[in-house]
């Protein structure tokens, strides 16, 4: 459920008619609904309240906008960060350092040191090598790092290959068969306090059974580690719960997910941690665009819009589907190919799709663009960096400026020896 609805034939974000925002800010433009964000945050949190002890760390990479993080901080979410930059954002948004977990295979020495200094709550170690490096830094600083070991459970998440992370051939975590030995070594290394295990098998999961299989394997490992005399008090189950991108698609609901976790973890006696991203932010945003022109094509016309793969990369990266809808639909439909202006054939949002009939100058949206949307935007083809707006009832504000090509140009230098 979201708060992007038609009123009198015009698409609104909560109480704001989208054409108002297009006129004030220009297109392309991301529009977020605060009510939708809050609702998703609460639904997920409330569903998991069936578990005895829960900690939520929002996956910042799905939507790192400061205003988004502020809303989630107020809902009691911590942050799952994958870089020093994301950590600084979470702190800037007022998230407590203690509620931040740091994931990622390539945390640098400087990032580890800064995270220790900031006092973040947990390091999700992705290798023995990383653990030993962190131990050295922590010991030198006179600190102890709270850690969990990320395990690669070798389970096929059944999602797009580029967002699968839990197969043996993926770079993430330590191999399942080696995990107990690595855990034992790190647990006896000064500077580290090993407290549990973590996993994250992939994103946009449409079924719960791969998650259940992976969680079950982690339970077996947890018992083996405990039997060898080491404590396991925290299990970080990662993120990955998918959202329907196509109207009518049916996905597992947060309650189904929570019920599955409760069943699998019965009697585990752990603090259960979660790192939801897409399930919180996916539906909270749309990318609004204007039709530049409609060009005759072979079979279907090309609807050329002013948004492109640099603004919303998911279709080009993962063949992802985003529903396309006119802001003021006239009732008729056409079959069309939707493309952006970038000089790459991958700058294609949809081929042979039945859509609202649109013509030059019309406004439209790509729906479910709140996760992995603006955050992946870039300035390819010297396009501006796409701006973001948040709506809250009848209020709205620009929460990220459009960065113009001139600003980017101003950061470039011609060396003296070329001048
Ligand atoms: C990307 C990622 C997440 C969030 O994934 P979603 O599919 O957006 O829920 C959580 N944890 C880790 C370690 C990740 O890399």
TrEMBL record:
Residues 30-370 form the Orn/DAP/Arg decarboxylase 2 C-terminal domain. Pyridoxal 5'-phosphate binds at residues 240, 275-278, 372. It catalyses: meso-2,6-diaminopimelate + H(+) = L-lysine + CO2. Residues 42-281 form the Orn/DAP/Arg decarboxylase 2 N-terminal domain. Keywords: Amino-acid biosynthesis, Decarboxylase, Lyase, Lysine biosynthesis, Pyridoxal phosphate. InterPro entries: Ala_racemase/Decarboxylase_C (IPR009006), DAP_deCOOHase_LysA (IPR002986), De-COase2_C (IPR022643), De-COase2_N (IPR022644), De-COase2_pyr-phos_BS (IPR022653), Orn/DAP/Arg_de-COase (IPR000183), PLP-binding_barrel (IPR029066). Its cofactor is pyridoxal 5'-phosphate. The keyword Glycoprotein does not apply. GO terms for molecular function: diaminopimelate decarboxylase activity. It is an enzyme of class 4 (lyase). It comes from the Bacteria. Pathway: Amino-acid biosynthesis; L-lysine biosynthesis via DAP pathway; L-lysine from DL-2,6-diaminopimelate: step 1/1. The keyword Transit peptide does not apply. The modification N6-(pyridoxal phosphate)lysine is found at residue 61. Substrate binds at residues 278, 314, 318, 344, 372. It holds the Pfam family Orn_DAP_Arg_deC. Its EC number is 4.1.1.20. Homodimer. Belongs to the Orn/Lys/Arg decarboxylase class-II family. LysA subfamily. Specifically catalyzes the decarboxylation of meso-diaminopimelate (meso-DAP) to L-lysine. This is Diaminopimelate decarboxylase. The gene is lysA.
